Amino acid sequence: MGLRIYNTLTRQKEPFEPLTPGQVGMYACGITAYDLSHIGHARSALVFDVIRRYFEFNGYRVVFVRNFTDVDDKIIKRAEQEGGSVGEVSERYIAEFQKDMESLGVLPADVEPKATEYIPQMIALIERLLGRGFAYVVNGDVYFEVGRFPHYGRLSGKNLDELLAGARVEVDERKRDPHDFALWKSTKPGEPSWESPWGPGRPGWHIECSAMSMEHLGESFDIHGGGEDLIFPHHDCEIAQSEAATDKPFVRYWIHNGFVQIHQEKMSKSLGNFFTVRDIFEKSPYGVQVTAEALRYFLLTTHYRSPLDFSDDALWESKRALDRFYGLFQRLDESSGAKGPGDRLLPPLFERLGEAFRQAMDDDFNTPAAFAQLQLLRGELNRLLETGLSKQAREQAREAFRSLGQVLGLCQLSFREWEFGIMHQVHATDAVAAAVEDKVDVRVSKESLTDVEIEQKLAKRNEARRRKDFATADTIRAELASLGITIEDRPDGTSRWKR
RNA sequence: GGCGGCGUAGCCAAGUGGCUAAGGCAGAGGUCUGCAAAACCUUUAUUCCCGGGUUCGAGUCCCGGCGCCGCCUCCA
C-alpha cells in the first residue's frame, strides 16, 4: 500500500511520491539558539528523526537538513544579558542542543546550516523578489508584500481579510499592509549586521529557511516540517517568498508535530512551564542511555500530530514498559540448550508482525500502532520461550527487535546496559524526589557491587537454598534488593539478576 | 471575532463506515515458586462527551450542544 503522509497543505493523508524516485529531500525547522532545549523541542527533533530513519529503513536515500537560527532578537537580547557576543551565545546553545540530541539518540542531520552562513543566498533571494515586484524597500528595510502573492495564507487556511479582523499586530506605518513581513532588517546600533544592497542589516526570520532549504534541496523538494506553531506565519511566509521567487511549488508535503503540554497546557518558554531535556537527564535515577530510551518511548507513544501531556509518572510508565522488553532480551540471551520446538513458528511470526509494523508506520508514521506490534511480538516470544527456542532462533528474535527498533531508536542496548532496578518498589516520582533532595546519586549505590560480587552472593544464596536454609537465602536476596538488584530464580535452581 | 484540532476503560493510547473496540501501564484472580521475582493464563469499555440525523450498518459521516487545547505576536 505504501507510505501515506498527512499533508498540512491539503489537510489529508496523501500517498508519498518523492520528486526523484528513491530519494527524499527533507527540511526541518530547528531551534533558535538562545537557551537550553525543552521537551517540546526534543519531541519535534525526535519526530523528524524517526521519519528520517523510516525513510532510510525503506531504502530511500535521504538528504535531511535541520537548521539553526543563530541571529535574531532573542539571541541579541540574551547576549546583552550575558554580556557576550551574539555569536558566542548562539554557538553555546547550538552545542548544548547537539549535546542533548546526542544524549537522546537523535541522529545528526546530513546538513545543519546556520543562518549567518547563508547571508549571500538570502540577499540573492531578496533581490529576486525585488526584481519580480514582490518586495519593497523602506529606509534600509525590505518587506515582502503579501498582497502580491495570491495564495498567501493557504497553508494555515487563513486569508488576509480574516487576519485583519483579528489583528493584534502592531501596525508599522512603513508597511503597505500590516501583514507584510521583513525580509531584511536595517541594523540598529550594537547589533550584528551584514552589508547588503540596502545598507547594513540582518535577515528576517522567514527568509533564512527559504534560502537554506533551496540551497541544499533545490527550489522544490519533498518534505518540510516543524512544530505546529510554525504553520503560521513562518511556513506561510516561506511558501510565499519561495514560490514568488521561483514560480515553482516549494514543498510537496508539509508535516507538523503537535505540542508537548503540561497539565493540558502548551509547554513554552513564555508560559514558563517547561522542562529542559537537561532537567530530565539530570533528575533521572538512570543512566543516560536508559533515560534516553524511556524518553524516546514516551514521546513516541502518542501519534506525532496529537498533543502529548508530559508528566514524570507518564515518563516512568514508559520505562516500566521498556523493562519488559529488556527482560525478554535477557531471557533470549540465556543459553539453555533447549532443542527448540518453537523454532519453526518464528519465521511466520516475524513476517506477520513485521508487516503489521510497517503498515502502522506507513500510515502517517503511526508509532503507537507500531509499538503495539512490538508488544505483541514480545508476548509471542515469551510464550515460545516456554515451549523452547534454539540459540539460533533466540538470536534471530533479538535481531528482529533490533531491526524494527532501529526505526524508533529503541531496543538497541544489551540487557546488561539496561537498568531494571530502583523503581521496582519505590514510586518513580518519590525516588526522583528523594534522590534530588538527599543529593544521593542512586546510580552510585546501585553500582556498589561488581558483577563478580553479585555472582558470589548469588552462589552463596543458592547454596543456602539447596540446604533449605531459606532464612539465609532471603537475607541475601534482601541485601541485593537494597542495592537495586533483583533476583529471578530459574526452575533449575540457578538464578538470574538484574540491576 | 476568525481558523484549526481534540474528547475512546482507573491512567496512557490506536482505531476514521462493516468480523467479538488494538496495544501498554496500573489493579484483581490463577499457574509456576520454599517464599518471591519474572513469565504465562484469566479478568477490567454491550460501548467510544451529550442530543439528534444519514445509512442495511457509525467510535468512524452530517447537524446542534457541552468541555478542553492550539494558531491568528516570538515560539518545536
Which descriptors would you attach to this protein?
499 residues, alpha/beta, Rossmann fold, Isoleucyl-tRNA Synthetase, Domain 1, 3 domains, 4-stranded antiparallel beta sheet, 13% strand, elongated, RNA-binding
CATH fold topology of the largest domain: Rossmann fold
Category by helix and strand content: alpha/beta
Average of pLDDT: 89
Which term fits the overall shape?
Answer: elongated
The profile of the biggest β sheet is:
4 strands, parallel
- The CATH class of the largest domain is Alpha Beta
Gap from first CA to last CA: 43 Å
Give your account of this protein's structure.
The protein is an alpha/beta fold and 499 residues long. It folds into three domains: 254 residues, HUPs (Rossmann fold), CATH 3.40.50.620; 144 residues, Isoleucyl-tRNA Synthetase, Domain 1; 51 residues. Helices cover 48% and strands 13% of the residues. The strands form five sheets. A four-stranded parallel β-sheet has the order 4-3-9-10, sandwiched between helices. Strands 5-6-7-8 form a four-stranded antiparallel β-sheet. Helix 9 crosses helix 10. The radius of gyration is 27 Å and the shape is elongated. The two termini are 43 Å apart. About 5% of the residues have low confidence. The structure holds one RNA strand of 76 nucleotides.
